[in-house]
Amino acid sequence: MARILAVDDDPLVRRCISRILVNAGHEVVPAGHGADALQIAADRAFDVALVDYHLPFIDGLEVLQRLREVQPGCLRILVTGALDLPMIMDAVNRGEVMRVVEKPFESAGLVGAVEDAMTARRRMMEVYRVQEQAASEHERAMLVDCLNGGHLRLALQPIVSGKDTSIHAFECLLRSTHSVLDGPLSVIRAAERHQMLPELGQAVSRYAAGWMEQIPGNIKLFMNLHPNELADPDGMCNSLEPLQPWAERVVLEITERSRLQGIEAWDESVDRVTKMGFSIAVDDLGAGYSSLSVLAELQPSFIKVDMSIVRGIDCDPRKQRLVDLLCRFADATNATLIAEGVETDDEASALRDCGAHLLQGYLFGKPSTELPASLTSMESA
After folding, report:
1. 20 to 30 A from 1, CA-CA: which of 55, 204, 242, 258?
2. What is the rounded average pLDDT for all residues in the chain?
3. pLDDT value at position 258?
4. Residues 266, 228: one domain?
5. Do both 103 and 169 map to the same domain?
6. Domain residues for 169?
7. Left if phi > 0, otherwise alpha if psi is -120 to 50, otherwise beta: which for 205?
8. pLDDT tops 90 at residue 118
9. Is residue 211 domain-shared with residue 315, that is, in the same domain?
10. Does residue 132 lie within any of the structural domains?
11. Could you tell me if 2 and 118 are in contact, meaning their C-beta atoms sit under 8 angstroms apart?
12. Residue 263, pLDDT above cutoff 70
Protein backbone atom coordinates (compact mmCIF):
# COMPACT_ATOMS: atom_id res chain seq x y z
CA MET A 1 0.00 0.00 0.00
CA ALA A 2 1.20 3.48 -0.89
CA ARG A 3 0.32 6.80 0.69
CA ILE A 4 -0.57 9.08 -2.19
CA LEU A 5 -1.04 12.85 -2.34
CA ALA A 6 -3.61 13.67 -5.06
CA VAL A 7 -3.65 17.33 -6.11
CA ASP A 8 -6.41 18.55 -8.47
CA ASP A 9 -8.66 21.61 -8.36
CA ASP A 10 -11.60 19.67 -9.82
CA PRO A 11 -13.49 17.94 -6.96
CA LEU A 12 -14.94 15.35 -9.36
CA VAL A 13 -11.44 14.36 -10.53
CA ARG A 14 -10.20 14.21 -6.92
CA ARG A 15 -13.04 11.89 -5.96
CA CYS A 16 -12.41 9.74 -9.03
CA ILE A 17 -8.69 9.42 -8.28
CA SER A 18 -9.41 8.63 -4.63
CA ARG A 19 -11.99 5.97 -5.48
CA ILE A 20 -9.76 4.21 -8.03
CA LEU A 21 -6.66 4.14 -5.86
CA VAL A 22 -8.42 3.32 -2.58
CA ASN A 23 -10.07 0.35 -4.32
CA ALA A 24 -6.56 -0.70 -5.39
CA GLY A 25 -5.52 -0.77 -1.72
CA HIS A 26 -3.80 2.60 -1.38
CA GLU A 27 -4.26 5.51 1.02
CA VAL A 28 -5.15 8.77 -0.71
CA VAL A 29 -4.94 12.28 0.74
CA PRO A 30 -6.65 14.83 -1.55
CA ALA A 31 -5.71 18.51 -1.98
CA GLY A 32 -7.59 21.13 -4.00
CA HIS A 33 -4.69 23.46 -4.83
CA GLY A 34 -0.94 23.74 -4.59
CA ALA A 35 -0.67 25.67 -1.32
CA ASP A 36 -2.93 23.15 0.40
CA ALA A 37 -0.81 20.27 -0.96
CA LEU A 38 2.45 21.81 0.23
CA GLN A 39 1.04 22.42 3.69
CA ILE A 40 -0.09 18.79 3.92
CA ALA A 41 3.29 17.56 2.64
CA ALA A 42 5.07 19.58 5.34
CA ASP A 43 3.42 17.45 8.03
CA ARG A 44 3.03 14.02 6.41
CA ALA A 45 5.31 11.80 4.34
CA PHE A 46 4.08 10.47 0.98
CA ASP A 47 5.27 7.73 -1.34
CA VAL A 48 3.71 9.19 -4.51
CA ALA A 49 2.28 12.57 -5.53
CA LEU A 50 -0.24 12.91 -8.36
CA VAL A 51 -0.28 16.59 -9.36
CA ASP A 52 -2.51 18.23 -11.98
CA TYR A 53 -0.71 20.56 -14.37
CA HIS A 54 -3.35 23.32 -14.37
CA LEU A 55 -3.79 24.47 -10.77
CA PRO A 56 -4.89 27.87 -9.43
CA PHE A 57 -2.47 30.16 -7.54
CA ILE A 58 0.52 27.83 -7.87
CA ASP A 59 0.80 25.79 -11.08
CA GLY A 60 1.51 22.09 -11.05
CA LEU A 61 5.14 22.43 -12.09
CA GLU A 62 5.87 24.79 -9.21
CA VAL A 63 4.16 22.39 -6.81
CA LEU A 64 6.28 19.52 -8.13
CA GLN A 65 9.46 21.52 -7.71
CA ARG A 66 8.62 22.42 -4.11
CA LEU A 67 7.59 18.85 -3.33
CA ARG A 68 11.00 17.69 -4.52
CA GLU A 69 12.61 20.01 -1.96
CA VAL A 70 10.26 19.07 0.89
CA GLN A 71 10.12 15.32 0.23
CA PRO A 72 12.90 14.12 -2.10
CA GLY A 73 11.86 10.50 -1.61
CA CYS A 74 8.32 11.10 -2.87
CA LEU A 75 7.93 10.09 -6.53
CA ARG A 76 6.01 12.62 -8.59
CA ILE A 77 3.50 11.97 -11.38
CA LEU A 78 2.18 14.83 -13.53
CA VAL A 79 -1.50 14.66 -14.56
CA THR A 80 -2.54 16.78 -17.54
CA GLY A 81 -5.16 17.00 -20.24
CA ALA A 82 -2.84 18.50 -22.84
CA LEU A 83 0.34 16.62 -23.67
CA ASP A 84 3.10 18.54 -25.38
CA LEU A 85 6.82 17.83 -25.41
CA PRO A 86 8.11 21.20 -24.11
CA MET A 87 5.79 20.99 -21.11
CA ILE A 88 6.87 17.42 -20.35
CA MET A 89 10.56 18.32 -20.62
CA ASP A 90 10.00 21.30 -18.31
CA ALA A 91 8.27 19.01 -15.83
CA VAL A 92 11.16 16.56 -15.88
CA ASN A 93 13.78 19.29 -15.49
CA ARG A 94 11.99 21.21 -12.73
CA GLY A 95 10.28 18.48 -10.75
CA GLU A 96 12.02 15.20 -11.55
CA VAL A 97 8.72 13.78 -12.76
CA MET A 98 8.76 10.03 -13.13
CA ARG A 99 5.97 9.89 -15.67
CA VAL A 100 2.99 11.77 -17.08
CA VAL A 101 -0.63 10.56 -16.95
CA GLU A 102 -2.94 11.99 -19.60
CA LYS A 103 -6.55 12.97 -18.93
CA PRO A 104 -8.99 11.39 -19.34
CA PHE A 105 -7.37 8.34 -17.76
CA GLU A 106 -8.63 4.82 -17.24
CA SER A 107 -8.52 3.07 -13.90
CA ALA A 108 -5.95 0.52 -15.05
CA GLY A 109 -3.66 3.21 -16.41
CA LEU A 110 -3.77 5.25 -13.19
CA VAL A 111 -3.19 2.20 -10.97
CA GLY A 112 -0.38 1.07 -13.27
CA ALA A 113 1.32 4.46 -13.05
CA VAL A 114 1.25 4.31 -9.25
CA GLU A 115 2.51 0.71 -9.18
CA ASP A 116 5.36 1.65 -11.54
CA ALA A 117 6.21 4.53 -9.24
CA MET A 118 6.26 2.26 -6.19
CA THR A 119 8.49 -0.24 -7.97
CA ALA A 120 10.88 2.56 -8.90
CA ARG A 121 10.77 3.85 -5.33
CA ARG A 122 11.70 0.45 -3.91
CA ARG A 123 14.62 0.24 -6.32
CA MET A 124 15.69 3.75 -5.43
CA MET A 125 15.54 2.99 -1.71
CA GLU A 126 17.63 -0.13 -2.20
CA VAL A 127 20.21 1.91 -4.10
CA TYR A 128 20.25 4.45 -1.26
CA ARG A 129 20.62 1.67 1.29
CA VAL A 130 23.57 0.13 -0.53
CA GLN A 131 25.19 3.55 -0.97
CA GLU A 132 24.71 4.44 2.70
CA GLN A 133 26.10 1.08 3.78
CA ALA A 134 29.14 1.54 1.56
CA ALA A 135 29.62 5.10 2.84
CA SER A 136 29.31 3.89 6.43
CA GLU A 137 31.86 1.12 5.91
CA HIS A 138 34.21 3.59 4.23
CA GLU A 139 33.84 6.07 7.10
CA ARG A 140 34.51 3.33 9.65
CA ALA A 141 37.67 2.32 7.79
CA MET A 142 38.79 5.96 7.79
CA LEU A 143 38.10 6.20 11.54
CA VAL A 144 40.17 3.07 12.21
CA ASP A 145 42.96 4.57 10.12
CA CYS A 146 42.64 7.85 12.01
CA LEU A 147 42.89 6.09 15.39
CA ASN A 148 45.67 3.67 14.48
CA GLY A 149 47.55 5.52 11.77
CA GLY A 150 49.06 8.30 13.83
CA HIS A 151 46.63 10.99 12.70
CA LEU A 152 45.52 12.13 16.14
CA ARG A 153 47.22 14.82 18.16
CA LEU A 154 46.59 16.37 21.56
CA ALA A 155 47.16 20.10 21.71
CA LEU A 156 47.87 21.61 25.13
CA GLN A 157 46.47 24.92 26.35
CA PRO A 158 47.99 26.29 29.57
CA ILE A 159 45.94 26.92 32.72
CA VAL A 160 47.79 29.46 34.84
CA SER A 161 47.77 30.67 38.41
CA GLY A 162 45.60 33.70 39.03
CA LYS A 163 48.34 35.15 41.24
CA ASP A 164 51.51 34.95 39.19
CA THR A 165 50.44 33.34 35.84
CA SER A 166 52.75 30.36 36.41
CA ILE A 167 51.55 27.23 34.63
CA HIS A 168 49.44 25.09 36.94
CA ALA A 169 47.97 22.69 34.36
CA PHE A 170 47.21 22.04 30.71
CA GLU A 171 43.94 21.15 29.03
CA CYS A 172 44.49 18.65 26.22
CA LEU A 173 42.37 19.24 23.11
CA LEU A 174 41.88 16.71 20.34
CA ARG A 175 43.30 17.49 16.89
CA SER A 176 43.41 15.41 13.70
CA THR A 177 45.67 15.44 10.66
CA HIS A 178 43.49 12.98 8.73
CA SER A 179 42.65 14.15 5.21
CA VAL A 180 38.88 13.62 5.66
CA LEU A 181 38.24 13.35 9.40
CA ASP A 182 40.24 16.51 9.79
CA GLY A 183 38.72 18.05 12.90
CA PRO A 184 37.92 16.93 16.45
CA LEU A 185 34.17 17.13 15.92
CA SER A 186 34.25 14.98 12.78
CA VAL A 187 36.32 12.35 14.60
CA ILE A 188 34.01 12.34 17.62
CA ARG A 189 30.82 12.18 15.54
CA ALA A 190 32.23 9.29 13.49
CA ALA A 191 33.14 7.46 16.71
CA GLU A 192 29.59 8.02 17.96
CA ARG A 193 28.02 6.68 14.76
CA HIS A 194 30.18 3.55 14.74
CA GLN A 195 30.07 2.95 18.51
CA MET A 196 33.83 3.36 18.74
CA LEU A 197 34.02 5.86 21.59
CA PRO A 198 35.93 3.34 23.77
CA GLU A 199 38.57 2.99 21.04
CA LEU A 200 38.77 6.78 20.71
CA GLY A 201 39.06 7.10 24.49
CA GLN A 202 41.90 4.58 24.56
CA ALA A 203 43.75 6.41 21.79
CA VAL A 204 43.36 9.75 23.57
CA SER A 205 44.61 8.23 26.83
CA ARG A 206 47.70 6.84 25.10
CA TYR A 207 48.54 10.25 23.66
CA ALA A 208 47.84 11.88 27.03
CA ALA A 209 50.17 9.40 28.71
CA GLY A 210 52.85 10.45 26.25
CA TRP A 211 52.38 14.04 27.34
CA MET A 212 52.52 13.10 31.02
CA GLU A 213 55.93 11.56 30.44
CA GLN A 214 57.13 14.98 29.24
CA ILE A 215 55.26 17.42 31.50
CA PRO A 216 57.47 18.19 34.51
CA GLY A 217 56.71 18.60 38.19
CA ASN A 218 53.23 18.56 39.61
CA ILE A 219 51.57 20.18 36.58
CA LYS A 220 48.16 18.62 35.98
CA LEU A 221 46.48 17.54 32.76
CA PHE A 222 42.78 18.18 32.09
CA MET A 223 40.91 15.81 29.73
CA ASN A 224 37.35 15.97 28.44
CA LEU A 225 35.09 12.95 28.97
CA HIS A 226 32.38 12.18 26.42
CA PRO A 227 29.03 11.77 28.23
CA ASN A 228 28.47 8.38 26.58
CA GLU A 229 31.69 7.05 28.07
CA LEU A 230 30.11 7.37 31.50
CA ALA A 231 27.49 4.78 30.52
CA ASP A 232 30.15 2.04 30.53
CA PRO A 233 32.15 2.15 33.79
CA ASP A 234 34.30 -0.87 32.86
CA GLY A 235 35.09 0.46 29.40
CA MET A 236 35.90 3.92 30.71
CA CYS A 237 38.22 2.57 33.39
CA ASN A 238 39.98 0.43 30.78
CA SER A 239 40.38 3.48 28.53
CA LEU A 240 42.01 5.40 31.39
CA GLU A 241 44.41 2.58 32.26
CA PRO A 242 47.39 4.13 30.38
CA LEU A 243 47.06 7.19 32.65
CA GLN A 244 46.89 5.28 35.91
CA PRO A 245 50.54 6.06 36.89
CA TRP A 246 49.68 9.79 36.77
CA ALA A 247 46.10 9.58 38.09
CA GLU A 248 46.67 12.15 40.83
CA ARG A 249 47.72 14.67 38.18
CA VAL A 250 44.89 13.97 35.70
CA VAL A 251 41.57 15.83 35.88
CA LEU A 252 38.53 14.53 33.97
CA GLU A 253 36.16 17.22 32.73
CA ILE A 254 32.41 16.51 32.62
CA THR A 255 29.87 18.74 30.93
CA GLU A 256 26.36 18.49 29.41
CA ARG A 257 24.43 17.65 32.55
CA SER A 258 21.24 17.22 30.49
CA ARG A 259 22.79 14.14 28.86
CA LEU A 260 24.06 12.83 32.20
CA GLN A 261 20.49 12.55 33.44
CA GLY A 262 19.78 9.84 30.85
CA ILE A 263 22.85 7.76 31.77
CA GLU A 264 22.11 5.38 34.61
CA ALA A 265 25.71 4.41 35.34
CA TRP A 266 27.28 7.87 35.37
CA ASP A 267 27.46 8.06 39.17
CA GLU A 268 29.14 4.64 39.34
CA SER A 269 31.62 5.72 36.67
CA VAL A 270 32.50 8.90 38.56
CA ASP A 271 32.89 6.95 41.81
CA ARG A 272 35.21 4.41 40.21
CA VAL A 273 37.51 6.91 38.51
CA THR A 274 37.83 8.96 41.69
CA LYS A 275 38.80 5.78 43.54
CA MET A 276 41.45 5.25 40.85
CA GLY A 277 42.89 8.61 41.89
CA PHE A 278 41.55 10.86 39.12
CA SER A 279 39.97 14.22 39.93
CA ILE A 280 36.70 15.56 38.48
CA ALA A 281 36.03 18.99 36.99
CA VAL A 282 32.67 20.48 36.04
CA ASP A 283 33.18 22.19 32.69
CA ASP A 284 31.32 25.10 31.07
CA LEU A 285 29.49 26.21 34.21
CA GLY A 286 27.09 28.93 33.11
CA ALA A 287 26.89 27.85 29.45
CA GLY A 288 23.51 26.15 29.79
CA TYR A 289 25.00 22.65 29.80
CA SER A 290 26.03 22.60 33.44
CA SER A 291 23.62 23.82 36.11
CA LEU A 292 24.40 24.60 39.72
CA SER A 293 22.85 21.34 40.88
CA VAL A 294 25.60 19.40 39.10
CA LEU A 295 28.04 20.84 41.64
CA ALA A 296 26.17 19.11 44.44
CA GLU A 297 25.84 15.86 42.50
CA LEU A 298 29.45 15.53 41.34
CA GLN A 299 31.26 17.33 44.19
CA PRO A 300 34.05 18.31 41.77
CA SER A 301 37.56 19.27 42.70
CA PHE A 302 37.57 21.90 39.93
CA ILE A 303 34.88 24.25 38.64
CA LYS A 304 35.41 25.76 35.19
CA VAL A 305 33.41 28.93 34.54
CA ASP A 306 32.35 29.26 30.90
CA MET A 307 33.75 31.99 28.68
CA SER A 308 30.26 33.45 28.22
CA ILE A 309 30.52 34.72 31.81
CA VAL A 310 34.20 35.65 31.54
CA ARG A 311 33.88 37.65 28.33
CA GLY A 312 33.67 41.36 29.19
CA ILE A 313 33.57 40.75 32.94
CA ASP A 314 35.69 43.86 33.52
CA CYS A 315 32.75 45.98 32.32
CA ASP A 316 29.88 44.01 33.87
CA PRO A 317 29.32 44.28 37.64
CA ARG A 318 26.71 41.49 37.55
CA LYS A 319 29.20 39.03 36.10
CA GLN A 320 31.72 40.12 38.69
CA ARG A 321 29.28 39.45 41.53
CA LEU A 322 28.41 36.05 40.06
CA VAL A 323 32.06 34.97 39.78
CA ASP A 324 32.72 36.32 43.27
CA LEU A 325 29.92 34.11 44.63
CA LEU A 326 31.21 31.09 42.71
CA CYS A 327 34.71 31.68 44.09
CA ARG A 328 33.29 31.79 47.62
CA PHE A 329 31.41 28.55 46.95
CA ALA A 330 34.59 26.93 45.61
CA ASP A 331 36.53 28.03 48.70
CA ALA A 332 33.83 26.65 50.99
CA THR A 333 33.83 23.26 49.24
CA ASN A 334 37.61 22.93 48.82
CA ALA A 335 37.28 23.25 45.05
CA THR A 336 39.42 25.24 42.64
CA LEU A 337 37.72 27.72 40.31
CA ILE A 338 39.05 28.15 36.76
CA ALA A 339 37.92 30.98 34.48
CA GLU A 340 37.91 29.95 30.81
CA GLY A 341 38.23 32.11 27.72
CA VAL A 342 40.32 34.95 29.17
CA GLU A 343 41.49 37.15 26.31
CA THR A 344 42.38 40.55 27.77
CA ASP A 345 44.44 41.89 30.66
CA ASP A 346 41.37 43.74 31.96
CA GLU A 347 39.39 40.50 32.12
CA ALA A 348 42.25 38.78 33.93
CA SER A 349 42.51 41.64 36.43
CA ALA A 350 38.77 41.58 37.14
CA LEU A 351 38.86 37.81 37.65
CA ARG A 352 41.75 38.11 40.10
CA ASP A 353 39.78 40.70 42.04
CA CYS A 354 36.85 38.26 42.19
CA GLY A 355 39.12 35.59 43.63
CA ALA A 356 39.50 33.25 40.63
CA HIS A 357 42.15 30.67 41.43
CA LEU A 358 43.21 29.72 37.89
CA LEU A 359 42.87 31.34 34.46
CA GLN A 360 42.73 29.88 30.96
CA GLY A 361 42.50 31.53 27.57
CA TYR A 362 44.34 32.93 24.56
CA LEU A 363 45.84 35.65 26.76
CA PHE A 364 48.07 33.00 28.32
CA GLY A 365 48.55 30.73 25.32
CA LYS A 366 46.78 29.09 22.41
CA PRO A 367 46.52 25.28 22.14
CA SER A 368 49.85 23.91 20.90
CA THR A 369 51.30 20.51 20.13
CA GLU A 370 54.59 21.60 21.70
CA LEU A 371 55.45 22.29 25.31
CA PRO A 372 56.28 25.91 26.18
CA ALA A 373 59.99 26.64 25.98
CA SER A 374 60.11 27.51 29.68
CA LEU A 375 58.95 24.01 30.63
CA THR A 376 61.25 22.35 28.09
CA SER A 377 64.29 24.11 29.58
CA MET A 378 63.08 23.22 33.09
CA GLU A 379 62.81 19.55 32.14
CA SER A 380 66.28 19.48 30.53
CA ALA A 381 67.78 21.19 33.58
Report:
1. 55
2. 88
3. 46
4. yes
5. no
6. 151-380
7. alpha
8. no
9. yes
10. no
11. yes
12. no
Residues 164 and 119 in one domain: no
What is the average per-residue pLDDT within 151-167?
95
3-state secondary structure labels for all residues of the chain: CCEEEEECCCHHHHHHHHHHHHHCCCEEEEECCHHHHHHHHHHCCCCEEEEECCCCCCCHHHHHHHHHHHCCCCEEEEEECCCCHHHHHHHHHHHCEEEEEECCCCHHHHHHHHHHHHHHHHHHHHHHHHHHHHHHHHHHHHHHHHHHCCCEEEEEEEEEECCCCCEEEEEEEEEECCCCCCCHHHHHHHHHHCCCHHHHHHHHHHHHHHHHCCCCCCCEEEEECCHHHHHCHHHHHHHCHHHHHHHHHEEEEECCHHHHCCCCCHHHHHHHHHHCCCEEEEEEECCCCECCHHHHHHCCCEEEECHHHHCCHHHCHHHHHHHHHHHHHHHHCCCEEEECCCCCHHHHHHHHHHCCCEEECCCCCCCECCCCHHHHHHHHC
Residue 97 shares a structural domain with residue 179: no
Quote the CA–CA distance of 197 and 9 in Å, as a whole number: 54
Among residues 94, 127, 160, which one ends one of the domains?
A: 127
pLDDT of 319 reads 96
Q: How far apart are CA 282 and CA 295, in angstroms?
A: 7
- Tell me whether residue 318 is in a domain: yes
Q: Are residues 213 and 311 in the same domain?
A: yes
Mean pLDDT is lowest, of 59-63, 214-218, 350-354, 372-376, for: 372-376
Report pTM.
0.70
Q: How confident is the model at residue 256 (pLDDT cuts 50, 70, 90)?
A: low
| 271-314: pLDDT as tens digits | 999 999 999 999 888 776 556 777 877 889 999 999 999 999 99
Instruction: Assess whether 112 and 171 both reside in one domain.
Output: no
pLDDT band at 357 (very low <50, low <70, confident <90, very high): very high
Report the domain count for the chain.
Answer: 2
Provide CB contacts within 8 A for 371, sequence distance 6+: 156, 214, 215, 379
| pLDDT of res. 333 | 93
Q: What is the mean pLDDT of residues 80-87?
A: 70
Q: Are residues 336 and 193 in the same domain?
A: yes
